[in-house]
Amino acid sequence: MQTLEELIGVCDDVRLIGSSLGGYYAMYLAQKYQLKVCLINPAMHSSKTLSRMLGQAPNFYDGSHFEWKTSHLEMLEKYECTMTEQSNVLLMVQKGDEVLDYKEAVEKLPDAKQIVEEGGDHSFVGI
Question: Is residue 124 part of a domain?
Answer without folding.
Answer: no
